[in-house]
Each structure stands twice: as structure tokens, then as C-alpha cells.
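Notes from the 1:1 (GR / supervisor)

We went over the backlog. Supervisor wanted to see one worked example end to end before approving the batch request, so GR pasted a single chain during the call. The sequence is below; no edits were made to it. Supervisor asked that the structure be written out right there so they could see what the output format looks like.
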Amino acid sequence: MIDPRLSIIKKRLENITRIVAVSGSKGGIGKSTVASALALALAEKGKRVGLLDLDLSGPSTHIILGVEGLFPEEDKGLIPPVVHGIKFMSIVYFIGNNPSPLRGNDISNIIIELLTITLWGSLDVLVLDMPPGISDSILDVIRFIGRMEFLVVTTQSKVAVEVTKKELKILRELNIPILGMIENMATREGSSLHKEVESLHIPILGSIKFDAELEDAIGDAQRLSRTGFMKSLVALLEKSTIFRPDTA
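Structure output shown during the call:
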């Protein structure tokens, strides 16, 4: 039996030009920071942008952007609050800061509900902060949404590199468009991942050096915009199509 909510999801997303999923092989690599900074950079460039935090096990974009005291409005669905020019939606609006020990079907149902009830309106770009790795929940999001482009984040950690290779291969097998790969928190030049990624014909946008001042900017969007991390991220993304006029 086909879930009737799936047709509603398509209607909710029909006025969104592009959907960019920020994905990462594992936790702790700065995926949510990249997703938050990307949404902030798009808003600063005048784009109509939304940010949806789908990392149900550890939602953190609200912390990174300093979202406090703002909640969705209800009007035949949920209208996301606007923070720093970004339409923002997250699971934290439903579970608060409480632990959420969710399993397969529960996670899928929550994702379906979020996509079904959120009224985004017209957007140039919707940024998705994805759960880490390639789990059933990510495969569900790909199935529910369909038209997505992935921006993959990794680090120079050997563990992260190995998992990232698997993620990239799966995305390739599924014929999912990949905007490129970013190497975050780099502490040295070069990486063993580069040659293998090049063999998969996936764009390597480049590396962002470890920024010791980034942690102090968490929770302050204006300060985040001035960090070396943000400047490096924007410079790398200029190599992709994210900021180009076709997103408007």
C-alpha cells in the first residue's frame, strides 16, 4: 500500500528550486556546521533558503545558529520560523533536548511527518542536514524526496576516509548527483582519499583548515560569518553551482 503522505511531500517541495543534502560518513566531522554555514551563506547572498535538520540522533543546527525562543506557526501545516534569513525546521521542536532512542520505522515515520507538515513555500535552496553515514533513514529521504544533490563532508581521519569511500560509492550506484566533497578540519596537506575520489569522477572542492576560533563562534551567526572556516567554505563552494544564478 502506498503511503498517501508521499504525494503530499512532493506538493510541499514543488516550489523549491534545489535541494542540497549535506552528508557525512560519521559523527563529529563538522557536517552540521557545514550545513548551517551553507544555509547562512546562501541567505547572505540573497537566496531564499531553508534548513531542515534531519539528524534525529543528534540535532545541532539550532545550537550552531543560536536558534532560541522561535517556534513554527500552525496554519494547515507548520510554517518554519525565520532565523538569520533562513526558514528553519528541526526535530528539536518536537522532542526538545531530550534523548530520542528511535529505531528504523520510527525514524522513517518522523522524517515523513516532517516533510509532510512543513510548509516551505517558495525557496531557491533547501539545505538538509542529513543523519551520518548511509543508513535506512538516508535511503528513505532519497526515496521520499527524489531530486536531491549531495554535498559530502569528511575529514582526514582514516576511519572517516574509509566510511566516506563507501558512502560515495553507494551514492554513485544510486545515480544521485554529487556536488562535490569537502575535507573539513584539515591539519595537513593531501589525503589518501583524493585519488580514490577522482577515480569515481566526484569533484573534490578542497579542504578547510582546522579553525581554532570556530568553537567560540558557535551560537552566534554573525560571528560565525566572520570566521576563517566560513570564508574557506564559501571559497570552496564557489567552485560548485550552489551560488550561481540558476539557483534563483
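Supervisor's comment: Strands lie at 16-24, 49-53, 73-74, 78-79, 82-83, 86-90, 123-129, 149-154, 178-186, 204-209.
Batch request approved.
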